[in-house]
Amino acid sequence: MKKLKDFIVENKIFLIVGTIIVGLCCFLYIYHNRKLGIEYKPGNPTDVEYIQNTYEENQYSPVTIELIDLLNEYYSYYIKYQVKDADKAYELLTDETKESFNNDIEEYKKYINKINTIKTINNQVEKYRLVNKNEHVIEIVDSEGYKFTIYENSVWDFKISLDGKE
After folding, report:
1. Which of 27, 40, 46, 132 has its CA 20 to 30 A from that of 86?
2. Spatial CB neighbours of 129, under 8 Å, sequence gap ≥ 6
3. 141 vs 126: CA distance, rounded Å
4. Is the pTM of this model over 0.85?
5. pLDDT tens string 96-117
6. For residue 111, with 0-12 CB atoms within 10 Å meaning exposed, 13-18 middle and 19 or more buried, which class applies?
């Protein structure tokens, strides 16, 4: 306790000046916010009013989705299952790809266990090429250099083909 008293006695001027500065800053902050009409009203966070857009009949807001974004979504969806649930990933394969594994899911599991790395789950589409615009066939190459072909029938109705390393 003696050390604290000695500190206060030795630094009395600095403590007084510091207290005045802090008080002045608080006063200016409150004065400035009142001048701008800003009030602090603590309350329940669920009481926050959100801006809700009301649409009239047949009114819509157009949203542009880039092809690369959609391809990344498809690719991530497939890769997530390739890493975590091989049975579901196998269902996303084209018939030709399944035949290359002799229609045996165990052969497919062995193959993906060989190619999966720590980085696989974080891979993204590095480049893509539209093979057939009318049939929505797109070849992609991922971050690790593996090639895939996506056959899109409609949005989120697609099959994927494994084409090996680039």
Report:
1. 132
2. 138, 139, 140
3. 6
4. no
5. 999 998 999 999 999 999 988 8
6. middle
